[in-house]
Amino acid sequence: MTTPALRDQFGRSIEYLRISVTDRCNFRCVYCMPLEGLDWLPKAEILSYEEITAVVAQLAPLGLRRLRITGGEPTIRPDLERLVAMLKAVPGVEDIALSTNGVRLPAMARTLVAAGLDRVNISIDSLRPDRIRQIARRDLKFDPLASLTSAIDAGLDPVKFNMVVMRGINDDEIGDFARLGLDHALHVRFIELMPVGEMAGLTFEHIVPSAEVLERAAAAVGALEPAAGPARGNGPARYYRVPGAAGTIGVITPMSHTYCDTCNRVRLTADGRLRTCLYGDHEVNLRDPLRAGEPLGPLFERALAAKPREHHLLQLKVGGLKALSQVGG
Ligand code: SAM
Ligand code: SF4
To answer: What CA–CA distance (Å, rounded) separates 157 from 300?
Structure first.
């Protein structure tokens, strides 16, 4: 029988843990990471795969059953498949997802699936190589469509393709992204830009509200009707479909609508802090108690009892975050 998930102080069931395995990245996306000035975590402070697995093994009996591996860029941490296999073997873990920029996916997708990875979100903000270089600020040769195909061919399901829409930078590709969902069985999701950290000159003016995105997507592919979205791994996105299309179009709207009332997640940073709200400043250090051999269950219960009702991103309160790469989005 499945263990009922713990509830927080507002009655929300918390069954989903996002695990950041590194604060580093092979990209420097304009909205995510400053080009310089982030202090990397020393290796000794980063949880080993054994320690991450030990945290999950202690929290799974409290109802955590869905995991997402994120970063920074998780695929740059060596032997990621070893962690996937270790997590998959924890009793109670039902589902493991990965968030990645996709650069290394063609080389890794099959190995990760063999280790137990279930699904993937690929974050790509353009289909044009020159523009990817401009947004990611790194000159890595890679083909976003090859990344996408490798994920589908390896059997990852669902495959979600996430684009952060920025006015005047990549919003002219809304139609091209929407068309991907016509022929491929994937979920194209448009994310509203969130103002966190330095943002390389991006301002509120660069945010494209999801209502406008949907209008522009429909202008490219035809009328959209509400859809159920993927059977597994439904998060805060709202989904739509062109009748008869293979995939769906989704929008994630942290700016125009919050979805805090149905929040089911907490986050573990690479150095072992449990963060109960993406933009809250309430964190609990799990690493030191874990290394001291203390039980984590009571700490987890206390952390959930203090999970805030909602974030205050619109008031630009981000709980000390300098970049989303520090907590994995
Ligand atoms: N490197 C991986 C990736 O890019 O998917 C995982 C970490 S990344 C921080 C997770 C997600 O956060 C990505 O989809 C990224 O586009 C999104 N993200 C980062 N900063 C953002 C911002 N300021 N506004 C909206 N989305 C952001
Ligand atoms: Fe790296 Fe992902 Fe942040 Fe881009 S969004 S800089 S790929 S962590």
So the answer is: 30
Q: Atom 4 (ligand 2): residue with closest C-alpha?
A: 29
The residues lining ligand 2, judged by C-beta closer than 6 Å to any ligand atom, are 25, 27-29, 32-33, 71-73, 101, 123, 325
Q: What is the mean pLDDT of each run of 10 residues along the chain (329 residues)?
A: 72 87 94 86 96 96 94 96 98 96 96 98 94 92 90 94 96 96 90 79 87 96 88 74 92 76 85 82 90 94 78 60 63
If you measure from the C-alpha of residue 193 to the centroid of ligand 1, how many angstroms do you get, rounded to a whole number?
9
Decide: 240 and 249 in contact? Cβ < 8 Å: yes
Q: Which atom of ligand 2 is nearest to the CA of 324?
A: 3
Strand partners, 227: 239
In this structure, the residue with its CA closest to atom 5 of ligand 1 is 100
Distance between Cα 163 and ligand 1 center (Å): 9
Q: How many CB atoms lie within 10 A of CB 242?
A: 22
Bond prior to 74 in cis (omega within 30° of 0): no
pTM above 0.90, yes or no: yes
Provide residues with CB under 6 Å of ligand 1.
25, 31-32, 70-71, 73, 99-101, 123, 162, 164, 191, 193-194, 196, 324-325, 328-329
Residue type, 55: V
Tell me the two tokens of residue 79: 């032997």
How far CA 245 is from CA of 55, 180, 186, in Å, comes to: 41, 10, 10
Contact 282, 306 (CB under 8 A): yes
Q: Give Rg (Cα) of the chain.
A: 19
Sign of CA dihedral 301, 302, 303, 308: positive
